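About this split. The held-out portion is used to measure sequence recovery: a designer receives only the structure tokens and must propose an amino acid at every position. Recovery is the fraction of positions where the proposal matches the reference. Here is one held-out target exactly as it appears in the evaluation file.
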């Protein structure tokens, strides 16, 4: 699992909309990669603020913006895939 793949699956991961194998791969990566852990934690907190702590799926537009922002973030930090 690479950082770029984490970003790709992040929205589904946070929605708990992944199969168990993929979820496990992501969690393994998060255990090793501080950058991705930070991104996941920040995103989780942001979603909780937006949704007022109520579980709600991310709207498609938010997902797209999120993906775009994260991809840009990873690119800027020069994280090699
Ligand atoms: Zn990573």
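Reference sequence for scoring:
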């Amino acid at each position: 699992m690479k950082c770029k793949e984490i970003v790709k699956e992040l929205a589904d991961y946070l929605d708990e909309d992944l199969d168990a194998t993929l979820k496990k791969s992501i969690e393994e990566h998060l255990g090793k990669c501080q950058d991705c852990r930070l991104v996941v934690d920040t995103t989780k907190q942001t979603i909780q603020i937006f949704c007022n702590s109520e579980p709600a799926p991310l709207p498609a537009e938010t997902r797209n913006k999120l993906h775009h922002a994260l991809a840009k973030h990873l690119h800027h930090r020069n994280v090699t895939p």
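Annotator remark: The pocket of zinc ion is lined by residues 3, 6, 29, 33, 35-36 (CB under 6 Å).
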